[in-house]
Automatic annotation (TrEMBL):
Name the record gives this protein: TLE family member 2, transcriptional corepressor a
Originating organism: Oncorhynchus mykiss (Rainbow trout)
PROSITE patterns: WD_REPEATS_1, WD_REPEATS_2, WD_REPEATS_REGION
Biased composition (Low complexity): 215-225, 240-258
Residue stretches of each WD repeat: 404-445, 446-487
Gene that this sequence comes from: LOC110521463
Highest classification ranks of the organism: Eukaryota, Metazoa, Chordata, Craniata, Vertebrata
Polar residues bias: start-end ranges: 177-197
CDD domains listed in its UniProt record: WD40 (cd00200)
Gene Ontology cellular-component annotations: nucleus; transcription regulator complex
Keywords (A to Z) from UniProt: Nucleus, Repeat, WD repeat
Length: 604
């Protein structure tokens, strides 16, 4: 307890020992320092206080180091979040630049030959030219100057201004002026181009398009002729674009004069939502040539074609809704989230709470698909587990009556045969497992996909099965002979598909944001470009005349079969992961990333 190198003081002999001390002095022995007991205690007290002072000093230093550590951790978290945000922003701006580059490429064929060469040279110079030189070029044409920074090919603002430059060249070209006498005045009256320096940062919500005041908020309807063809100059209308198929953009042109009185001004921002600038539907011939589709006059007319959809219910599931289905009676909706399926009664208006909860998987595993048999008595559930659950809904309390276990760690999608005897499950290992629902046994497996099988649908006659996979292929299987019939290869992963109940068309939703409608026996197909991100789910109406698709861009799009005229569009507040249509085509249900499902009533 004493400080280092300080010897302890010897204790003084008790009083009365003076004789011993005198004897020691007489013998000449050295006499030690004599301390009384109180002095010894005071000495101990001093040493204790000294150690206590050192302890407090060290404690303060430790507290200071702990504070510095906390501050360093806070800065680390802050810098990490900034780095992550900048990384996301970089990818976003890169994607915007790519799309603007595609728009520029599609504009070029509509210019005169001289202007085409000028634009192509300008795009090539864009990688080296300085902003000062580009400002001088743009200033001549009446556009505001750009910031004096090096022009980078990944700059979406620069590409946007180059796109505006191309647009002005189109508007001022002699051929356009000859074909459209006085059209420039009408163009400026119908289209309000905002070219301020902050265009690239504007919200997509600044784009107001064809909103019907009587229609529900966030649901938009489109003209059947709005595919860009009726906006092209007469001299160009019959001539297909000269751009390569890969460079064709996903947009349609400005409003047609016949609808200009009913349309709000179109404000163009760097990221275009809802109403594209050019054609969004293209016919792809057998040799790969793409041409904008001339929609027929009755594309959005006639029985069975909806006018718009009205949101009637919001079902707050509480977790991300990855799977939805609606009963044949349209009374019950089933929503699959993390570890459970919730049952909702939508037959009555008003706020909703789940009437039952079916705990299917481990609490942390998501439901990926749920299918209800037409009699409404059996529900089949699959997800991030190797087991499918078969639920008996006819009992007062729903219960699991069987479980089907495969070797795959997850099931991504389910389909039921028309006779309700067989279930097909798309597995994460790429296999398609066929189950006998009566005997709860595995019948066979279709093997072919080299990556996870992500989506599935079956023909109405029950003879063909269509599957899409993460290996960029769509495959057709013969259920009678148990073999693969067809394979369609794509350049993007397949996230969703649907087979038309009444025709020979297959709609495919892809990670690249395209929707392609294939003819199953002919090489012709249609390519649709209204989604801005990957297409996560797709479903045909039971009448076969239209279908819906949903995406990571928060959009629900309704399309005309097969050429893809846009019927209506609804934008939700988060990614729309799943959808279903009621058997009577009267209701649409969607599941989204903001932990809710939405029920729409289809208005005819």
């Amino acid at each position: 307890m004493f400080p280092q190198n300080r010897p302890p003081a010897p204790l003084q002999p008790p009083p009365g020992s003076s004789a011993s001390a005198a004897a020691a002095a007489a013998s000449g022995a050295p006499q030690a320092l004599k301390l009384t007991y109180p002095e010894t205690l005071d000495r101990i007290k001093e040493e204790f206080q000294f150690l206590q002072t050192q302890y407090h000093s060290l404690k303060m230093e430790c507290e200071k180091l702990a504070t510095e550590k906390t501050e360093i951790q806070r800065h680390y978290v802050m810098y990490y979040e900034m780095s992550y945000g900048l990384n996301i922003e970089m990818h976003k701006q890169t994607e915007i630049a790519k799309r603007l580059n595609v728009i520029c490429a599609q504009l070029i064929p509509f210019l005169s030959q001289e202007h085409q060469q000028q634009v192509v040279q300008a795009m090539e110079r864009a990688k080296q030219v300085t902003m000062g030189e580009l400002n001088a070029s743009i200033g001549v044409r009446g556009l505001p100057p750009l910031p004096h920074t090096v022009f980078n090919s990944s700059s979406h603002t620069s590409l946007f201004r180059l796109f505006c430059l191309c647009f002005l060249w189109v508007a001022n070209s002699p051929s356009s002026q000859h074909a459209h006498t006085g059209s420039q005045t009408r163009t400026h009256r119908q289209t309000n181009w905002s070219l301020s320096g902050s265009d690239a940062d504007k919200s997509d919500d600044n784009l107001v398009v064809d909103e019907d005041p009587s229609s529900p908020r966030s649901v938009h309807s489109y003209s059947s002729r709005e595919n860009g063809l009726d906006k092209l100059p007469p001299s160009r209308k019959d001539a297909p674009p000269q751009a390569s198929p890969a460079s064709l953009a996903s947009s349609s042109s400005q409003a047609s004069p016949s609808r200009s009185k009913d349309r709000e001004p179109l404000v163009c921002s760097a990221s275009v939502h809802y109403m594209p600038l050019f054609a969004y539907s293209f016919h792809v011939s057998a040799d790969g040539q793409m041409q904008p589709v001339p929609f027929p006059p009755d594309a959005l007319l006639g029985p069975g074609i909806p006018r718009h959809a009205r949101q009637i219910h919001t079902l707050n599931h509480g977790e991300v809704v990855c799977a939805v289905t609606i009963s044949t009676s349209t009374r019950h909706v089933y929503t699959g989230g993390k570890g459970c399926v919730k049952v909702w009664d939508i037959s009555q208006p008003g706020s909703k709470s789940a009437m039952a909860q079916l705990d299917c998987l481990n609490r942390d595993n998501y439901i990926r698909s749920c299918k209800l048999l037409p009699d409404g008595r059996t529900l089949i559930v699959g997800g991030e587990a190797s087991t499918l659950s078969i639920w008996d809904l006819a009992t007062p309390t729903p219960r699991i009556k069987a479980e089907l276990t495969s070797s795959a760690p997850a099931c991504y999608a389910l389909a039921i045969s028309p006779d309700n005897k067989v279930c097909f499950s798309c597995c994460s290992d790429g296999n398609i497992v066929v189950w006998d629902l009566h005997n709860q046994t595995l019948v066979r497996q279709f093997q072919g996909h080299t990556d996870g099988a992500s989506c599935i649908d079956i023909s109405n006659d029950g003879t063909k099965l269509w599957t899409g996979g993460l290996d960029n292929t769509v495959r057709c299987w013969d259920l009678r002979e148990g073999r693969q019939l067809q394979q369609h290869d794509f350049t993007s992963q397949i996230f969703s598909l649907g087979y038309c109940p009444t025709g020979e068309w297959l709609a495919v939703g892809m990670e690249s944001s395209n929707v392609e409608v294939l003819h199953v026996s002919k090489p012709d197909k249609y390519q649709l470009h209204l989604h801005e991100s990957c297409v996560l789910s797709l479903k045909f109406a039971y009448c076969g005349k239209w279908f819906v698709s949903t995406g990571k861009d928060n959009l629900l799009n309704a399309w005309r079969t097969p050429y893809g005229s846009s019927i209506f569009q609804s934008k939700e507040s988060s990614s729309v992961l799943s959808c279903d249509i009621s058997p009577d085509d009267q209701f649409i249900v969607t599941g989204s990333g903001d932990k809710k499902a939405t029920v729409y009533e289809v208005i005819y």
